[in-house]
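[job 4471] stage=fold_predict status=RUNNING
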Amino acid sequence: MTQITQRSPSEAMFAADEASRGLGIELLEHGPGKAVLRMTVTPEMVNGIAHGGFVFLLADTAFACACNSHGPVTVAAGADITFVAPAYEGDMLVATAEERTRFGRSGIYDVSVRRGEEVIAEFRGRSRNITGTTPHLTRDTTARRTPGTTTEESR
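[job 4471] inference complete, writing structure tokens
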């Protein structure tokens, strides 16, 4: 008997994330409000030390998996990162995302990025549920065409 398993919301979101997977990021663990991802720093990711954008991307991907774990499509409303120590070519980085709170359509998530036991970055993401939309299929370019204007959708 063949058993059909359905992907979790985190697995489905990560499977569609070609950018993260193209950089070798792996989804190791996931569950409600949490996710653990891994990435090895490659030669293309360094400029002496690992470029901070790649560390941010790893943390942001862990955040995305955690905040989308509940099912409705959720996007980043904002995020910031504090770099604690540099990463280097060959380092294996692990990002652990944990939900701190959800309220209404919003949430707050913390992500620690580690090299072994050493924390190299701390990230905080703020999420917003956009129920009823599919961001990869719906694209509002109004703001790009008319800079400085406020649309009904952006309020």
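[job 4471] summary: The longest strand covers residues 92-103.
[job 4471] exit 0
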